[in-house]
Specification:
By secondary structure, this protein is mainly alpha-helical. Helices cover 79% and strands 0% of the residues. Helix 12 packs antiparallel against helix 17 and helix 13 packs antiparallel against helix 14. The chain is globular and about 60 Å long.
Amino acid sequence: MSDFQKSISRFRWFIVTLLFLATTICYMDRQLLALLKPILDKELHWSDTDYGTVNAAFFGVYAASYTVFGWFIDRFGVRLGFTVSIIWWSLAAISHSLAGSVRGFFCARIALGAGEGGNFPACIKAISVWFPKRERAFASSLFNAGANAGPVVAPVIVPWIAIHFGWRAAFVLIGITGLVWLVPWLRFYQDSPGQSRLVSAGELEIIERDRESEDVSGGKVSWWRLFAHRQTWAFVLLKFLTDPISWFWLIWLPDFFNATRHLDIKNSWPQLMTIYLIAISLSIGGGWWGDWFIKRGWTPTWARKSGMLISALFVLPVLFAQHAGNWVVVVLVGLAIAAHQAWCANVYAAVSDVFPKRAVAAIAGIGGCAGAIGGMIFPYVAGVLLDHFKTTAGGESAGYAVLFAICPSAYFVALAIHHVLAPRYDQVTLLR
């Protein structure tokens, strides 16, 4: 039996499963609004610019929330921080059912963004605490696969719920699901593996394998001092330039199929579901690359950056998606989304490699804030761009062609800047 087969049944992989489910629930809600857009277009009579503005509002508050939860989780622990985040997020999701105007959705998305910022700082810090270096990229890719699992499930169930019970019921269901998730989380998760009665001595030894080579000293983290390190800026810019690409697919893909392929909410679900099934299947391997390189003696620097470069190369074929058939589009976009998740897995693992555990959530929060700021800008720009192209000869198809060209270029620009700022992944020593 391989080492992987022996370790997969251990408790730390159950923790990853909980993180995966939480991420799945969050991303189901992100796609709810995109799937319901055709219905809401008729009910609210909003433009693509209005739709982009509502999503921009979510990301604007999400940016601040990411930063606040990063600090909160480092200060009070993953268990409490994630609990507060999920309760807030679940109630905000339910509040969408009360909206009946563009302004109502604007307010509901602001509330959702305020609660959702705890997801990734909590997940990333939990991985840094529960896994040794050689398993972190793979573990990160597993929980991050929830970003694809949510959009797989949502296109199947949301149209059915919207048709039979109304679109408001979909938001209520997703909020209740988040509250139910809290039951196993509070029952099983502990902020220290040593506190859990379900962790054996052998597994604890595996988890703490790298402890002697990492700065695990306690104490508060000075956020302003984090910004004095080039490595902080290297990760911040990675997130700012590439996170919006993932959210572009999530927010605009249903509209893309509706506007350019004439596939409405009832007919586009096979394509949307298959895109994210492809993404789930392939993205996990992207996290495995980085860990595989390290196990064969590569430095974390070359292992993580090679994983990022390979991921960026797999995004390039999406350039040809605009003029391809429906199912070719499915394959190319699915490949691009999988590549993004593999990219993220290596980025998250690199954060854990470079920064001490007491600062991981803070760095994740700062980086997530930067990514959310980019996510706030890009949906609005996309909406304005698509509204503009509606009045031209190419129509919305031309607008999507421009947007599909922007997406792959962002990764190569981001990696080049990142390499200049952080040529080596040396462990950062933080002053108290």
